Amino acid sequence: MKKTILTFTLSFVALAVMAQTTDDAKTMATKIADRIFQNTTYTFVNRQTGETFTNLKGVAPNPSISAQSPYNQWHYTNGVTNIAMLELGEKLGDKRFEQYVLKNMNFVFNEGNLEFYKHLFDSVYAEQGWRAVQRLSWHMIFRNKRLDDNGPMGASLIEIQKKYPNQNFLNYINSTAEHILYAEPRLKDGTIARIWPHENTIWADDAFMAISFLARMGSLTGEDKYFTDAANQILNYTKYLWDNDRQIYWHCYHSDTKEHGVAHWSRANGWIFMATADLLTLMPDKHPLKQKVIANFRMQANGLALYQGQNGLWHQILDKTDSYEETTGTAMFVFGVARGVKKGWLHPDMIYLANMGLNGLKQKITSDGDVTTVCVGTGIMPSLVFYYTRPVTKNDPMGDGPVLRALVEMIDLPRYTEIGADSQYDKIILRKK
User: Fold this and answer.
1) What string of DSSP letters covers 183-250?
2) Is-above-0.90 flag for pTM?
3) Domain region containing 75
4) Are residues 215 and 259 in the same domain?
């Protein structure tokens, strides 16, 4: 009788913990999303005069006029946040989240707004060149020279295009596909690289910048070439960036000097892990490279498990425990592990890792839905000091998107279970000599 009561009690506690985890993730995600709603204004402001506009049709071109809210900018971080909002809406069965993303895209592709910034971009570029256009809102949509310009935003646009077909959306999607396939710098073996800070430097970040789009383009068109390119990127990035000793990725590889950078940066590893999960989610089971990508994903997860800190968080530099605990890398790892377990790519034991990561994220999210300790945008420098001293911010799309994606995956993650010793003892039988 006592054993039955104890078993029931333990089961009840386990279910209660599972319910609490689910409720916590749902509550935090909703609060973050509500804060984002409140801070997305759909207005423009003249930074010199303070005058505001809701539409720029007929307004004289002026470089001082910019989108007022960071959530209305055209930037890769907003692409991640848009994807997260769409996933949250699907998980909760709530249309307001996809309507939010649709409203953002319509705000950009509005005839008056887009024409205003296109005219401004063309004139500033003609007179002052590439460096000058960086001061303009939405310059990335017209520059279209980097994965940061078009990859994740294009990926989120694909998701909206599936639900709300729009020729202007499709034109941009197709131009992004052309750029990534035929204009983006690559090594001779097809690996996507940047031509700075060395010529043909491989950045771990670009795994997500490219694959977030390529995987969704494959899903949109049904063409295997996009999945094949995306899979080869993952496998090639591993060839160039994987550290066999530490079982994690370096941030970069300089193909001219054949040397790695100095850091195993957390978010760099997160970009690759999140990209791999996205690819596997959309990649057809029959694709000849899928099993290789699954094996690669498991290798990444096993390596990351070695570096989780005692608070459930991962450090800014994964193998340096004297670097600060950072939110975005942690969120990307929680997202990938939770998605991987539910899809069957990872062993259910990994649930424990994700649960501890969620506990860590709770320390970084306030009761008002503020997301804190987000490492700002980070390039590549030849010194660990650069990574140690990167500033942190809060309530930035850089952090909101990854954190929301992690919370969404945690909402319905199964509870952690293990084989209990008591239930197995009877299987051990003494054998006679």
Assistant:
1) TS-B-TTS-B-BSSSSTTEEETHHHHHHHHHHHHHHHHH--HHHHHHHHHHHHHHHHHHEETTTTEE-
2) yes
3) 46-184
4) yes
